Amino acid sequence: MSVSDTKRPSQTDWARLDTMADEDIDTSEIPPLDDDFFERAGLRLPDEPVAVTVHLDADVLAWFKAQGEDYEKRLNRALRSYVEAHKEQR
After folding, report:
1. Which stretches of the chain drop beneath a pLDDT of 70?
2. Residue 49 confidence (pLDDT)
3. Residue 1: its pLDDT value, please?
4. How far is CA 71 from CA 23, 57, 76, 85, in A?
5. Domain boundary assignment for the chain
6. What was the pLDDT predicted at 90?
């Protein structure tokens, strides 16, 4: 996904999705979660967060804070997304 993709509004019909029942959702392309899946599955817990001091532009911090009380978690997710997208560039 490019940066320009994230600036365009979603074309998802959220109102229609809100009215759909579970039975109306097409899951035909999703493979079943069989016993083999659960035998290979493992619990992966995230590492404990580390407290740091970081300098941010005031408007960037204000934007994240305006999203709600858990702005630090959203900021972390945004940074994680960036890291994942750029891991192979090392």
Report:
1. 1-5, 90
2. 87
3. 54
4. 35, 15, 9, 21
5. 16-89
6. 66
Provide the CB-side half-sphere exposure for 82 (13 A, CA): 7
Coil, strand or helix: which one is 20?
A: coil
CA 16, CA 24: separation in Å to the nearest integer? 11
User: Cα 74 from chain centroid?
Assistant: 9
Three state DSSP letters for 42-88: CCCCCCCCCCCCCCCCHHHHHHHHHCCCCHHHHHHHHHHHHHHHHHH
pLDDT value, residue 2 = 60
CA distance 27 to 19: 17
Rounded to whole angstroms, what are the CA distances from 8 to 1, 12, 14, 79, 87?
Answer: 12, 12, 15, 20, 25
CA separation for the pair 43, 46 (Å, rounded) = 10
